[in-house]
Amino acid sequence: MKFKGNGVIWNPEEGKPLARFEKGIFETEDPDVIAKLKKIGIPELIEEVPEALSDDETFTGSKSSKENLEISDDFKELRKLAKAKHIPGYMRMTKDQLKEELNDLNG
To answer: Based on the structure, what is the number of domains in the chain?
Structure first.
């Protein structure tokens, strides 16, 4: 199960971290950890199928590509892509920050 969050959630009972979020996501199959995270209100990450891009929107490249992606300058498209890739804080980012984050994920 995947959860959304930032940083580390401390487990005071065991004196060690319960969860460490990387790029805003923590994944576990441990039922005890899942129960504790749900109990304290950490939101689950619901896997969404990204919306299909219309013909006038362009996004090319692949995760295995080491080159920067060719990303359009359309701010709405960048936000859609950032949402689909689960980039934390994407709604507060500028167009240049969004482009940089998307390229970092793919390069």
So the answer is: 2
